[in-house]
Amino acid sequence: MNTNMEETKNEELEEKKPIKVKKIKKKNNEEVTKLTEENASLKEKLLRISADTQNMRKRFDEQLANVYKYDGEALVKKLLPVVDNFERAIKLDDANLTDELSQFLEGFKMIYGNILDILNSLEVKEIECLNQDFDPNFMEAVLTLHEDGILPNKVVDVMQKGYMYKDKVIRVALVKVSE
Q1: Which candidate, 69, 92, 78, places its Cα nearest to that of 163?
Q2: For 5, 74, 94, 116, which has the most beta carbons within 10 A of its beta carbon?
Q3: CATH number for position 150
Q4: For residue 7, is pLDDT > 80?
């Protein structure tokens, strides 16, 4: 009887083993699938973060290059009114001046020339406007007037010069434009 019972137990054990093995295999397959999906998701997140980091680095490098490129812009903007004042002073008529004032004006002209040389070395250029077609990217129309013999949309007078610093407009020209 013992042998019969042992055989029955052995049969029961054998029958139960495949069920447990199947359940374990099924659980393992589910876990592997879940881990594989999670791994793929994490890889995708890593790629996105890596791409975002590269994009941020490129933007930062571009911004830094622009900062270096236009480093002197604030100084140039502060010097432009000084240049304007020198130009106004130089427009004085030499005929009505005494020798002393004329010599003083010559000193002004030399200083003005030195400032222009410095600005040219910094790649500051005057925007040529007079007798040109009006361009709103470089000019601001302060007045419009109608004159016979002048084509419409032409700059008749420059009230304040405009300037470019390298390839950037730092001050638009204030102009009178024909209608």
Answers
A1: 78
A2: 116
A3: 2.30.22.10
A4: no
What does the alpha-carbon distance between residue 146 and residue 150 come to, in Å, rounded to a whole number?
8
DSSP class of 133: B
Q: Specify whether the CB–CB gap between 126 and 107 falls below 8 A.
A: no
* Shared-domain flag, residues 115 and 132: no
| Whether residue 11 sits in one domain with residue 65 | yes
Name the strand (E) or helix (H) holding 155: strand 155-160
Cα distance between residue 129 and residue 156, in whole Å = 9
Window from 99-108, 139-148, 155-164 with minimum mean pLDDT: 99-108
Total domain count, the chain: 3
What's the CA gap between 41 and 59, in Å, rounded?
A: 27
| CA 142 to chain CA centroid, nearest Å | 29
Segment 145-170 mean pLDDT: 91
Q: H helices then E strands: how many in the chain?
A: 3, 6
